[in-house]
Specification:
eight-stranded antiparallel sheet; elongated; Jelly Rolls; 27 strands; 1 helix; mainly beta; 2 domains; 381 residues
Length: 381
């Protein structure tokens, strides 16, 4: 069976992949668990402490997600469960849960996220009754003015109606949209995971779009990766990334850097060109770009920057874009923090950077082409 081009990850020492376009508000991936969040439902994975409502439920079971769920089997309307919750403050909250409907009689709404006692009239969102036998996530966003409330997961409606359904992974977040399920807290360093699991990526300084994908806002967003020995590479290094510029900046945009006076930086020039710059071991500054190539906004590009002795090269979409020969000692000294988005307190890009990797080797032309082909369909390159 043909599975497409193989992605080269030999000699990878650091990297991340946001999981675009799979990872979103509902779906987490292994290395992109989701936007930082706090689930205010205690023991959300085990659903401990929930009470039967009215006609009740048929107890718990273990879902295919590894969480505990509740099942309701051919039970009269006004069935399900509830939990009393005290929120930390007033504000905008999003309530959500995962449901799977098996049947509901005429007039019955299947199942709902239902909130009472929040400072307004009882409110709910019902599942899509046409989706039988498949998991669906339902949410309700409200502005809470009374922090002591009751959170229901219930089914109601219809004369002598019954319903059969399951529910798991309840979540309450102080936010205007849901994020992938977490039981407890997903911290700023647990949102985007280093592919080698050797460095912490801190996302507290960047933004997220409506699909929970990281985005740099062009104002002050930057993510820092604490320095560690694996990425302190002074020669024979390749830096691979997938980049989309969201708007044009009158000053240059620094995509990423370990510059700190003697290292390297990747940026877009004021004339809309990709560039690689840095200083060699003797302090001499070098920069290279390609005047014939113009960056377009809202378009993804696959890039590889590399240094091999005195030779510096930059590839765009699998093709050599620019090169130079440095006429001095061929090393980069870059022991500082890896900054993704901006340099110091300036040059902030308005961008998406869903893939970023560092290798302690020089990728071959065939490896670069293979990786470009592996990403081509995913990012419509």
């Amino acid at each position: 069976m043909y599975t497409g081009p193989k992605l080269t990850n030999d000699n990878l020492v650091f990297g991340y992949d946001t999981g675009y376009p799979i990872s979103d508000n509902d779906t987490a991936t292994r290395f992109s668990p989701g936007k930082p969040a706090v689930n205010l439902v205690p023991d959300a994975d085990t659903m401990a402490g929930w009470s039967a409502y009215s006609a009740g439920n048929d107890g718990t079971f273990v879902t295919e997600f590894g969480t505990t769920g509740y099942k309701i089997i051919n039970t009269a309307s006004w069935n399900g469960l509830y939990k009393d919750i005290t929120l930390p403050s007033t504000g905008v909250y999003t309530f959500s849960a995962w449901f799977r409907l098996h049947q509901s009689s005429t007039g019955n709404n299947g199942a709902t996220v239902y909130i009472s006692g929040w400072g307004g009239s009882d409110t709910n969102t019902a599942i899509d009754r046409s989706k039988i036998g498949e998991w669906q996530r339902i949410e309700k966003t409200i502005t809470v003015t009374d922090v002591t409330l009751r959170y229901y997961l219930i089914s109601f409606g219809g004369s002598n109606a019954t319903s059969s359904w399951e529910v798991t992974m309840p979540q309450v977040e102080l936010a205007s949209e849901r994020t992938p399920f977490v039981s407890g807290t997903r911290s700023d360093t647990a949102s985007l995971i280093d592919l080698k699991k050797t460095a912490n990526i801190d996302v507290s300084g960047i933004s997220f779009d409506s699909n929970a994908q990281p985005v740099w806002d062009g104002t002050d967003d930057r993510s820092d990766v604490t320095s560690h020995s694996a990425i302190e590479i002074v020669d024979n290094v390749s830096i691979e990334y997938v980049y989309k510029r969201l708007s044009t900046d009158p000053v240059l945009d620094v995509i990423a850097n370990k510059y700190h006076s003697t290292g390297w930086e990747l940026f877009c020039t004021t004339s809309n060109k990709f560039a690689l710059a840095g200083r060699n071991g003797d302090g001499t500054y070098y920069s290279m770009s390609n005047g014939a190539y113009t960056i377009q906004n809202n378009q993804y590009y696959h890039l590889v920057a590399m240094k091999e002795g005195l030779s510096w090269r930059l590839y765009v979409n699998g093709e050599l874009y620019a090169s130079l020969t440095a006429n001095s000692i061929g090393t980069w000294s870059n022991t500082g923090v890896l900054q993704i988005g901006g340099e110091g307190n300036g040059y902030f890009p308005h961008m998406e950077l869903p893939v970023f990797k560092i290798y302690n080797k020089v990728l071959s032309t065939s490896e670069i082409k293979s990786n470009f082909n592996a990403y081509k369909n995913r990012f419509n390159l």
